[in-house]
Write a structure and sequence with these properties.
It is a single chain. The chain is an alpha+beta fold. It has four domains: about 5-120 and about 130-145, Jelly Rolls (Sandwich), CATH 2.60.120.380; about 155-260, Jelly Rolls, CATH 2.60.120; about 320-390 and about 410-460, GOLD domain (Jelly Rolls, Sandwich); about 505-700, Rhopdopsin 7-helix transmembrane proteins. The chain is built from twelve helices and 33 strands. Strands 7, 22, 23, 24, 26, 29 and 31 form a seven-stranded mixed sheet that branches. A six-stranded mixed sheet has the order 20-21-25-30-27-28, with no helix packed on it. A hairpin with a 2-residue loop joins strand 22 (about 320-325) and strand 23 (about 330-335). The longest helix is centred in the last third of the chain and has 25 residues, at about 620-645. The radius of gyration is 38 Å and the shape is elongated. The chain starts with a strand and ends in a 19-residue tail after the last helix. Mean pLDDT is about 85; it is low at about 270-310 and about 730-735. It comes from Dromas ardeola. Keywords: Cell membrane, Membrane, Transmembrane, Transmembrane helix. Pfam families: DUF3522.
Length: about 725
């Protein structure tokens, strides 16, 4: 045999602490056909700084779709099917780099996904620039070994093959045609080169993670042995591996024969069914009274066809796939939303999810039992959703499984007429929905009966659009798109349905009131500025108070939200007002000449606006203007002190009762803002920041100029007549 090795690599990604699915870094690979060995090379590394500590990286694997993970142990939505992913842990302790290998023999061909993430996020809000997070990098490479000339086993034709040794197993493949109900593999004339008892192990199928359903048969001392597969995957190549269990140097010769039993389908579709497609788009909505009432002519024709084709092993119902948007598909039945279901053969619906871009959403299937015969009050419609091939014997087996896939069962009856199934990240394949009528006293009671079941099936990026307290985000890894829910207001879970840490409505209202009303502490600062004739500064404080109030009213995660304009605009104005307020306050304290002060006001504001547009959350957008303004203030104070030969400001009362309290409040505010804020305490720690900053401004504003008279409202606000003083000077007196 000729083996060919191939190597696939993707760029490394920086890992994040986990709080929602968007924090997991996804890698997407495609395994070629005839692959007999797959080896993952996982490389994890970290930085060398003192902030880097021991870390555990979790890596998840899945075939056909991104892995469904739950590191936080939160709840999934009701009716969602969850199967745990296959995962390993990589520890970065004393070593800066860790290399791990994961081997998979006879892997399934197609899409494979790897997701990696760090442990749960601590929840602390870090200011960009105050701390340097440790970089943790992860890279996944894939090596494959495939057979370039894998023998093909033809149905009904015996093929002699030889397994040289246990170290070199024999690989063959067989193509399974559509509508195959049963596959039978026989091993004949098994002999060894040493004329001893034949001992071989036969493995059918490929490995898929997290669950693998390979079928294994061991033939020891038997001339012939066989294995039967029910509902093998349709229109796919099936790998067969034969391993010798004998001596190391002994070869085994065996003859293999594959045979199939086809399932003859009966279909109610015809070319004329497509003429009803446009009518159904403009007709009554699915599930309305008209759909459940008297049957239309096409429905009566469907019933007659179904009754005439009871001899078939299944009844196909035509389904149209309608692409709506990215990872958004609706499936529509040509013969109406209701399908006939009988007890003799299952009704089959094909749900096409094999485009390669459908596995990043959620498949939702809803069944509604419309009506049943009057004599079958206790009858039940059993359904099974499976991938690759349908379940064709629901009346005999209720385990809802095919040869290599464990399906998802559903059940509707008169006592429970509705059932819903949510498949999270369905694997790329053809999906089938099988329905059949089951009677409690035996199938003979149901031979002449027929049930009507309304089927709604669609693919959506996020189930229920993540609910009221979540946001559906479309994520991308190279050309692959998938969706995830980002929850807020303490809600959690895959679809933001976990209420374990959810905030109540009253808590949300309290948070909104604290974050907005705390900005009213700028009113004393505004009053002090106006009283001391600092009108420009008072205008800046008013601007900051206004936009900070309405930005936090719009920034709330829950239901207590009010946005007077675009969110991004409010955020930018809030950040701009905050930094400019600090800038003008420190410049006002420096007591420079008015013309110079106002020039610095304008130039500083323009530069701050530019820097915020470049990086809105950078710490130097605030620290830079503050430090530059402090340098100007210290230089001005030193100049005034040298000129007067006295400490400036000269009054000890100014230092004790104004400057020191104001500086203390400012330092406490910066400490709270930079080191104490977390996601859980944000609403009251940030409110404290508002109060402390606004209070410090009121203390730090300098007194008014000596030549400025205090506001005399009785003289400023005059009405009617005003007695004017004649200040004209008489230069000459005539006598």
């Amino acid at each position: 045999s000729l083996y060919v090795s191939e190597y696939f690599s993707q760029s490394a990604q920086k890992l994040s602490f986990y709080s929602w699915y968007g924090n997991a870094k996804l890698f997407h690979f495609r395994v070629p056909e005839d692959t007999v060995l797959l080896r993952w090379l996982l490389q994890a590394s970290r930085g060398k700084g003192p902030e880097c500590t021991n870390m555990e990286i979790t890596v998840h694997f899945r075939y056909g779709a991104p892995p469904v993970i739950n590191p936080l142990g939160t709840d999934f939505p009701a009716n969602a099917t969850v199967r745990p992913s296959y995962s390993i842990s990589i520890t970065l302790s004393s070593a800066v780099q860790n290399t791990t290998f994961v081997n998979v023999t006879t892997p399934a061909a197609g899409d494979w996904f790897i997701a990696a993430h760090l442990p749960e996020a601590a929840g602390r809000i870090e200011v960009k620039g105050f701390s340097t997070p440790c970089p943790y990098m992860f890279q996944a490479d894939m090596f494959v070994l495939r057979l370039a000339d894998m023998p093909v086993l033809e149905p009904g034709v015996a093929m002699p093959q030889t397994a040289v040794s246990p170290a070199k197993p024999l690989h063959v493949k067989v193509f399974i045609p559509k509508h195959t109900a049963v596959m039978r593999l026989e091993l004949r004339n098994c002999v060894t080169s040493e004329q001893k008892a034949c001992a071989v192990r036969v493995v059918l199928g490929s490995i898929t993670l997290p669950q693998s359903f390979q079928r294994i048969i061991t033939c020891v001392g038997k001339v012939n042995c066989s294995l039967t597969l029910d509902s093998p995957p349709w229109e796919k190549w099936l790998q067969i591996m034969v391993e010798s269990l004998g001596a190391a140097n002994a070869s085994v010769s065996v003859e293999m024969l594959a045979s199939f039993r086809a399932c003859r389908p009966g279909s109610t579709s015809s070319f004329l069914n497509f003429s009803s497609l446009n009518q159904s788009q403009t007709g009554p909505s699915p599930g309305s009274a008209g759909a459940a009432g008297s049957p239309t002519p096409s429905t009566r024709e469907t019933s007659r066809n179904a009754s005439n084709q009871r001899s078939f092993c299944l009844q196909n119902q035509p389904v149209v796939r309608e692409d709506l948007d990215v990872v958004s598909v609706r499936y529509r039945l040509l013969n109406g939303p209701s399908v006939p279901v009988n007890s003799l053969s299952p009704t089959l619906l094909l749900l096409n999810l094999n485009t390669g871009m459908d596995s990043g959403g959620s498949l939702v299937i809803n069944l509604l039992l419309n009506k049943t015969s009057a004599s079958l009050a206790n009858a039940t419609v059993v359904a099974c959703v499976s991938a690759a091939s349908p379940v064709l014997s629901l009346n005999a087996t209720h385990n809802c499984s095919t040869a290599f896939f464990q399906g998802y069962p559903l059940r509707v009856s008169t006592s429970s007429p509705e059932a819903t199934l949510i498949v999270l990240y369905p694997q790329t394949d053809d999906w089938f929905l099988s329905l059949q009528l089951i009677c409690p006293k035996g199938q003979g009671e149901c031979n002449a009966a027929e049930a009507k079941v309304t089927v709604f099936a669609y693919l959506t990026p996020c189930f229920n659009d993540c609910g009221q307290y979540g946001q559906c985000s479309l994520l991308r890894r190279h050309g692959y798109l998938y969706a995830g829910c980002s929850c807020k207001a303490g809600w959690g879970g895959w679809s933001c349905t976990d209420v374990t840490k959810a905030q109540s409505v009253s808590a949300q209202n309290l948070a909104t009131l604290l974050l907005t009303l705390s900005n009213l502490m700028f009113l004393p600062a505004i009053a002090v500025a106006v009283y001391r004739y600092y009108l420009v500064e008072a205008s800046v404080y008013t601007y900051t108070m206004f936009f900070s109030t309405f930005y936090h009213a719009c920034d709330q995660p829950g239901v207590a939200v009010m946005c007077i304009m675009n969110y991004d605009t409010l955020q930018y104005c809030d950040f701009l007002g905050s930094v400019v307020s600090i800038w003008v306050t420190i410049l006002c304290m420096s007591r420079v000449k008015k013309i110079l002060k106002y020039v610095l006001f304008v130039l500083g504001t323009l530069l701050i606006a530019m820097s915020l547009q470049l990086d809105r959350r950078g710490v130097w957008n605030m620290m830079g203007p503050c430090l530059f303004a402090l340098v100007i203030m210290i230089a001005a104070w030193v100049y005034h002190g040298v000129k007067r030969r006295h400490c400036y400001p000269p009054s000890w009362k100014r230092w004790v009762f104004y400057l020191l309290p104001g500086i203390t409040l400012a330092f406490i505010a910066i400490s709270v803002y930079a080191f104490m804020e977390t996601n859980e305490n944000y609403y009251y720690t940030h409110s404290i920041w508002h109060v402390l900053v606004a209070s410090s401004v009121a203390f730090l504003l300098p007194p008014r100029d000596k030549h400025k008279k205090p506001w005399a409202w009785s003289q400023k606000l005059t009405c009617r007549y005003q007695i004017c003083q004649n200040d004209r000077e008489e230069l000459y007196a005539v006598t």
